Amino acid sequence: MRHPIVVTLCVAGFAALSACEKGIDTAEMDRKFQGVNVIDGTDLNDVMLTVGDPNESVAYFKRASEEQPDRIEFQRNLAASLVRAKRMTEAKTAWAQVVAHPDSIDDDRVQLADALIRAGDWEQAEKVLNAVPPTVETFKRYRLEAMIADSKKEWKKADSFYETAVGLTTTPASTLNNWGFSKLTRGEHAEAERLFTDALRHDPKLFTAKNNLVMARGAQGNYTLPVMSMTQSERAELLHSMALTAIKRGDVEIGKGLLRDALETHPQHFEAAARALSALDSSASGLN
């Protein structure tokens, strides 16, 4: 059943190539084929959802939605593209329109709640999630529930939601990192360290988890970097974070030593570390 799509797209590609060769206005050619692409180009829609520039996706699906206003999939793709483009004010409006569509499903409400949280509207996000039936047990739903509980300092609920969310995904690194940061803000440093370590086991390249792990160790007075993969620049950044943690705990001399290590480690001039060390030296001179 997909042969007409393939043939249509091939014909469109051939026509566009011919247009280039003959010097025909390609914008006019795009207009001739845009209806075909929007209505029948399922594969093209999938491509546009992940295209490099999210604003191109926004433009594509906005046009598609205007041409076919009853097609909820185009509205969904437009809303998702707006989130990718970090245009959150527009994204939450777009997802609200999807939810208002007669063919909307519960997952659309979860997506709306996500957009509301990203836009900083936590209270409305909670109301939207509360309207989602408890039978909707998805990773995203529980991750959002955990974040909302966190924002309200309802720690037991947050932990329960985080644990459930982690069990519902094969890529839990970012959620484990969020959970660990929650523990860090509560002062549960050892538990936070464990969660950051788990996050890095799932995604060794997640720098935010590396940085948070260093801060959790530093908060416990452990000023040695853990064994993990890191670039030279990352190592310098982590030494800088550990230095600031040490200084905050009152271990100023240790912090200064870590800042010097960061300066020596970084492959380029490390302005933040240099500035921090200079400020400490100036403060020490003023006391003498």
Helix content: over 70%
Q: Can you tell me the overall shape?
A: elongated
Compute the number of strand runs.
0
Low-pLDDT regions? 1-40
How would you characterize this protein structure?
The protein has 288 residues and is an all-alpha fold. It has 16 helices and no strands. α12 runs antiparallel to α13. The radius of gyration is 25 Å and the shape is elongated.
Task: Give a brief description.
Keywords: TPR repeat. InterPro entries: TPR-like_helical_dom_sf (IPR011990), TPR_rpt (IPR019734). The chain is mainly alpha-helical and 288 residues long.
Question: Which key features would you list for this structure?
Answer:
disordered N terminus; elongated; mainly alpha; 16 helices; 288 residues
Helix-strand blueprint:
Blueprint: H1 3-22, H2 26-40, H3 42-49, H4 54-67, H5 72-84, H6 88-100, H7 106-118, H8 122-130, H9 139-151, H10 155-166, H11 173-186, H12 189-202, H13 207-219, H14 232-248, H15 252-265, H16 271-287
